Amino acid sequence: FHANIYSVNMTMLERPEINQLKDKGYTWNQPFDIVRLFENKLSEYTGAPYVTVTDCCTHAIELCLRYEKPTAKLQLPKHTYLSLPMTLNKLNLQFEFVDKDWTGYYYLAPTKIVDMAARLDKGCYIKNTHSCLSFGHKKVLEILRGGAILTDNKQAHEYFQTARYDGRDINNVPWTKQKEYNIGYHYNLSIEDCARGILLLDNITNITYNKDLFTDCKSYYPDLSKIKINYEYNR
Fold first, then answer.
1. What does pTM read for this prediction?
2. How does the average pLDDT of the chain come out, rounded?
């Protein structure tokens, strides 16, 4: 009796996206194929040759910084999201706030890294960049949370693919069959969120922008140069 109750409760809690993909005729051999399906969909829509999905845009930008290893002082718009200066501090990168108007995206100068958290439209990829997307509440793709790196650099893409998931090659299932790992980070996007992303991209024409976020950074974001961030705070 108790086992039956547990089974019913688990069914009620199960997210529907994977079954919805099946109902639409999608097929796959193993769950990680759904990640590839989502990445391929994003590649086709944005025009980026290579796509790596992550659990958030901040971690996407972090992986780009880890790959590029910039040595020059970075220029960060003072009107952006709070996690960016925290990430730069985390990586011991020097930066300065700059007064910059931006619409939809901005370069993390002088690198080729682009924060494109506020944008996702047809063909939005900018050549010769690592452009980082954001998914979630108030974003174009309203999955629980997520991000992606768009690039045309195959070597960088190969790094992003394994670094985003603990150094794992997701073609190896189970992971214990892999005999060697490069350092990686637990920044993978869940299979269910990838499935939701596919479903949303199939209906992208019905999705509208958050116009405030997309067009007016200075009214949407506070001036971070006037906010105190206690980088050394530790309890």
1. 0.90
2. 90
